Amino acid sequence: MLRRAMDRTTQDLPPLPDLAPVAVRLGRRRRARARLTVAGGVFGTVTAAALGLSLLSGADPGVAMPAAPPAAFPSAYHTPVQVRPTPGQQPPEKLSDAESARHAQFQQQVSALLDELLPASVEDIRPVAGEVSSYRITAGGTTFPVTLSVRPAEGERLQECRNQPPKITCEKADLGGGRTAQVYAMAVNRTDTLGAMVVTRYGRSKVLLSVDPSDTASAPVTGAQLLTVVRDARFTDLLKYADAHPVQKKDAPVEGG
Amino acid sequence: MPSPLGSDVGFEEFARSAQTRLYRTAYLLCGDAETARDLTQTTLAKLFQHWRRAGAAEHPHAYAKTVLTRTFLAERRRRLRDLLAFTRTGGLVPARNTEQPDLRVTLLAALAELPPRARAMVVLRYWEDLSVETVASLMRCSEATVKSQCSRSLARLRDRLGEAHLYTADPHLHPYAIGS
């Protein structure tokens, strides 16, 4: 019966034009971008690995990078993880070699800081190759996605906290210097798996730090623990860098869904 | 189907044969025609990108449904975070009209009240007629999760729409109405 209702609901949709030619054109562009990204990502990863700590300390003069990220914390190399894009995933954008290396360096700095500041139950932190805002952490043998997004967003401001307990809880936090953050705990994907997220602004950018649940387990990090990261002066240094030298582009109009 | 050399022969034919069905599914997922069209377009572009794999799949239409559903869910996740936290200064804040002045209860409105993953499960299970096992594999979760989510969602839909609406809706009242 539900199916009949669905059938009725969709049968009077406005007719579609032929989407195939545009799909071919867009699909070709996607292929080209993906090929270039793979090439750039491999180059960036190899370069970062080869340069190792000297790259992290910003001491290598042979790599052209606009104002290297700050490097005032431990700098063990966090081997990037290659995540195979699944169908339905947006391919990473094409980057120049220098830009790929800069992103890789930024990810190393973020990984090093998270390594130091997240609770000891987090066993491993690895950046996702070619996706500057994505990381993976491991806790108790399970892997969880982490996002640190610092995206230019002039003209956007933090909304008021939106609470919809028990699915979404939000608390406001004072970061000092007139800055505030919002700390969210929210059900992600399923009602019984919680993720944690802190959002704030820095300069002209909007900032989001989150840990998602795995398919079956809640995030191993709480919002309060993420807030500890966000409050650290070295994290602010990273934000300052990314705000002045963005590693992500301003949001594009949403495509689909 | 692609040739052994991996050409794109067959894609356009496939796209034309699949687009209407994908569009209708996208509509049930998204709740509005414009977004559903964008989602369908994006899905087809992604299929073309991976056509060597998709075209060679045993069931390309099933592959297409997977792409459509995962694109929908990924975009919803991204949007939810952004919508939760940020708003454009001086701009219009998208707000859902929970009052529904005309009190028209639609299937789309009822579906929209389900969380995106639960909505996707209901659409895949009852619209696409996929088995619990297939939905679980597509959604990367257990079969028990699919069963419990679908059962809970159906109960909510019944609460919202009422059995009578589901069974006796007059499609001429409003193209998308289940009851009024």
From TrEMBL, chain B:
Residues 106-157 form the RNA polymerase sigma factor 70 region 4 type domain. Keywords: DNA-binding, Sigma factor, Transcription, Transcription regulation. Belongs to the sigma-70 factor family. ECF subfamily. It comes from the Bacteria. Residues 16-79 form the RNA polymerase sigma-70 region domain. GO terms for molecular function: DNA binding; sigma factor activity. One of its GO terms (biological process) is DNA-templated transcription initiation. This is RNA polymerase sigma-70 factor (Sigma-E family). The keyword Glycoprotein does not apply. InterPro entries: RNA_pol_sigma-70-like, RNA_pol_sigma-70_dom, RNA_pol_sigma-E_actinobac, RNA_pol_sigma70_r2, RNA_pol_sigma70_r4_t2, RNA_pol_sigma_r2, RNA_pol_sigma_r3/r4-like, WH-like_DNA-bd_sf. NCBIfam families: SigE-fam_strep (TIGR02983), sigma70-ECF (TIGR02937). Pfam families: Sigma70_r2, Sigma70_r4_2. It comes from Streptomyces nymphaeiformis.
